[in-house]
Amino acid sequence: MGSSTASRIRCDIDFDRDGRQAAYLHAPLSRDTSGWGVVQIPIIVLKNGRGPSVLLTGGVHGDEYEGPIALSRLAATLRAEEISGRVIIMPAVNVPAVLADKRLSPVDGRDLNRCFPGDPRGTFSQMLAHFMDSVVLPHADVSVDLHTAGHSCDSALSTNMHYVADEAVRRRTMETAAAFGAPFNVVFWGVDEGATFTSSVERRGIVSIGTELGGWGRVNIEGVRIGERGVRNVLKQWGVIEGAPDTRQRDGSAGTRHMMVKGAKGYCFAPRGGLFEPLHRTGERVSAGELAGYVHFVEDVDNPPLELRYGASGLIWMAAGPGRVQRGDCVAVVMTDYDEAEAARA
Ligand code: CA
Prior knowledge:
By secondary structure, the chain is an alpha+beta fold. It has helices spanning 66-77, 95-100, 124-136, 167-180, 197-203, 221-237, 340-344; strands at residues 19-28, 38-48, 53-58, 85-90, 142-146, 153-155, 158-162, 184-188, 207-212, 257-261, 267-269, 274-278, 285-286, 291-296, 306-309, 314-320, 323-325, 330-337. The protein folds into 2 domains: 19-261, Zn peptidases (Aminopeptidase); 264-340, CATH 2.40.50.100. Helix 1 (66-77) packs across helix 6 (221-237) and helix 4 packs across helix 6.
């Protein structure tokens, strides 16, 4: 690797060494208090003999808490002797954003999850994205990236995946998502996906699932439970730890319900800024044409609220909280039951 493409992030982990390593990546960040300063990013690697390699990440967005909690606990309790293969755990990938409790990086104002595959000479987020893509991902067979909907939305507790063109990879991805055992798994085509971590993972032919385990800027108790169970379920499914995945659902069903969001109709955007009053919670059934909520202009007299309507029928995957929205903000996403034939139609 030439110096122009080498990462500037120092990594003391030997990914091929058996046993448990808990360390920090050292990402250079010059600042007022230290010209030679670094940002320390926690990484825990467990390896035991041969077997699949599972990458578990949280805190790509700093205001999403269930993943970092679940992964910190896993990192503290999982022992190298009980695994076959390798588990790479990064509970707080985007440490500056995690410490600032923000979606975007307080260092460069970027969304790390829109910076892939990154640039070793770019901004802090671009440098970090490049490290994840070029140094970490080559060591993974499957990636589980734990997210929530952050401050702006709440989410139905779910895994998610892209509709991957390769049928074998798609099937393996769906099996992994089903093993995770969230109430829903959402197959989607994305709105702005080329620069996301998931897209980088897929470009390398690695199985990629994400999660949405809550949101609205609080810790979702059930989201933590599903997240903790889910990462262990994936390790079981891939044969890294012993046992069968437990995918039982609170409603008595045996496992995950597969859903999809295809096309623009599932997304509801605010056409103007204002105070949004939603009418439905995540998981609720809605119909195309039904009232989704109102944008209020409470600073005006005699200015009636704007009515927003759903473009698709299904269940609410994402729901904006009651609060101020800007023109162009996504305020609801509707998911429908997964249909293989409809999904395959371009
Ligand atoms: Ca997120």
